[in-house]
Amino acid sequence: MNEELKGYLLGNASSNLWTAALIAAFFTALMMFTYRVSKRNKESPRTPVKFSLIFFFKDTGLRIIYTIGFTLILIRLMFIWELEVEWAIGFSIFFGIVSDRIGKFFTKAGDKGEEVINEKIDELADNFKKQESNINTVKSDVKEIKSDVKDIKNDG
User: Fold this and answer.
1) Vertex 120, ends 115 and 123: CA angle to 5°?
2) Spatial contact of 79 and 11, defined as CB atoms under 8 Å apart
3) What is the mean pLDDT of residues 130-134?
4) N or C end of the chain: which has fewer CB within 10 A?
5) What are the contacts of 10-18 at 24+ separation with CB within 8 A?
6) Looking at residue 109, what is its pLDDT?
7) Is pTM beyond 0.90 here?
């Protein structure tokens, strides 16, 4: 690998320190996911009776991707400063915990955003139906007025 590119990607850390930091962060994130799975609401209709890896990845796949991404970004930012190995590993463990929380925040924010957008679309559809009903009422009124005018002309 080109040394300049390696410097941009890894910062001032050695590849061994980067690898150790990643392992520490990912292991911590994995522990956080395992903890969260053990605390799930087993009475929820969305929860399968038996643990299923397929369900786990469907349910938390996006958070896993967020966690990996944020962990990589946070570790890279950490290596802007020259930290001793103990501090680097300590921060990496912290990033494993924080990345899961950040992933959860973004997942919930995305879900909430989708919910708000769907509510607005439903509201616009309802308003459109009301406007369409109003237009039909006006058309009906215009027909009555035309009929009344025609009757008046015929009477006169």
Assistant:
1) 125
2) yes
3) 82
4) C
5) 10/76, 10/79, 11/76, 11/79, 11/80, 12/79, 12/80, 12/82, 13/79, 13/88, 17/79, 17/85, 17/88, 18/75, 18/79
6) 77
7) no
| pLDDT 10s digits, 3-34 | 777 777 777 677 788 888 888 888 888 888 77
Residues, the chain: 156
Please count the other Cβ atoms lying within 10 Å of the Cβ belonging to residue 28: 21
Contacts of 92 (CB under 8 A, 6+ apart): 20, 21, 22, 24, 25, 28, 75, 78
